[in-house]
Automatic annotation (TrEMBL):
Database matches in InterPro entries: SelO (IPR003846)
A molecular function GO annotation: nucleotidyltransferase activity
Name the record gives this protein: Selenoprotein O
Classification lineage: Eukaryota, Metazoa, Chordata, Craniata, Vertebrata
Keywords per UniProt: ATP-binding, Magnesium, Metal-binding, Nucleotide-binding, Nucleotidyltransferase, Transferase
Family indicated by similarity: Belongs to the SELO family.
Cofactor: Mg(2+)
Amino acid sequence: MKILLITLAVLPTDPVKENYVRKVKNCVFSIAFPTPFQSRVRLVAVSKEVLEDILDLDLSVSETDDFIQLVSGGKIVFGSIPLAHRYGGHQFGIWADQLGDGRAHLIGIYMNRQGEKWELQLKGSGKTPYSRNGDGRAILRSSLREFLCSEAMHYLGIPTSRAASLVVSDDVVWRDQFYNGNLAKERGAVVLRVAKSWFRIGSLEILTHSGELDLLRMLLDFIIQEYFPLVDVKEPNRYVDFFSIVVFETAQLIALWMSVGFAHGVCNTDNFSLLSITIDYGPFGFMEAYNPDFVPNTSDDERRYKIGNQANIGMFNLNKLLQALNPLLNPRQKQLATQILKEYPVLYYTRFRELFKAKLGLLGKSEGDDDLIAFLLHLMEKTEADFTMTFRQLSEITQSQLQELVIPQEFWALKMISKHKLFPAWVSQYLSRLKSNISDSDSERRKRMTAVNPRYVLKNWMAESAVQKAERNDFSEFKLFPRSTSCSKFSAILSRSTLQLREQAIPPQLLPGPEISGLAAHLNLGQIN
């Protein structure tokens, strides 16, 4: 196996080379080597697309010992200087000071044949100076969920980190899964994940909070030079231009999350990418029964990160980014950046509206579109209708069936929502709106809608089924070599047989989802303050 990696060690690294937990200052990275597993290591998943299209590797390479050693942290390839990134962050709204890569190692950057640079990071590969009280390990359950979800999000068209491989060992790792004081044996695992960049808002926050302003300027200029080609690094207003892009892209990303019912679960500033991609999959969840209060994170008692508050949290996190940039801005630039941040709600609402109009197959503009979307979501909430399948089944039902209020039995989500007394009124408004586009056909409408409304998302029962079997060394529900698919099919990840068995069944109702003004007031999706 031949893969040449370059390093980010061109940025300042910690002069202390020993690997022990400590307060680190005046650097961006610490050099830290992965800790190999002591027991047998088994490759249980690999993404064919990531290997071949991103890393220029033939799939057969994954069968070699060199590959297993690389992706498990047992071997460092030529050119690699393993690094742990120093960053801080606001966790649940409170400054947490130094955090950093406590169980992850950036093993290098690969430039592929398309000229794209991808940063390779091992997660679960051992202790670093930022491990705090942790053991530096990840376990099979959480690693499998991250692999599945990052790949699923890619197939759904959501900007995300990617998962190249997943290995599991027989090393024992102790975890308290339910935070009730009961430790249980788990198996250690490592995910090789790739992204264009792993820098996050907390990467800049830690430098501002530590008063390391020269380093802050250096890192910002590096980030702009490497990842923001539309910004001139020699331009005096470059930091304002950079901030403007991050604000815009963050609004787009969160709107995309909402369009598929995705709740990240831990939207701390240390988990928000500066490149506005989805990173750090932890207690995430896809909403089943439509509920603006859906919270996948059982430890989020105050529901700060409920799906309906994600747009608000985006605003909060961007404000923290602006605070980190402020020491480098003059008064005029601060004023410009503040005005840019005020535009975030409009950016978010605009994209949200576009996405949900597409989900309903609506063309052009109409003053009643917001109300039409809000009306449907209201009915879904009151009837606890499945979010994903309601839109999917609206994509498949004909206008004549809707007109006659004839809902086929297999359209169980629509059957549920049709029980509401106001459903006929919504159908009447919807059909009237569709017919306003005289040149549009029903077949074209359904074609558009099926292209943007997935049949499958990674619902909790799917992930749990795969996890439970994997913990018994049964990976039958976990495709070893998933193929790329359109967003309308998630069977590229989980076995087709399992999905077909479950497709017609009404899924169990889960916990609570979205909050959005103008549109927000109608949609019961929350208010951006």
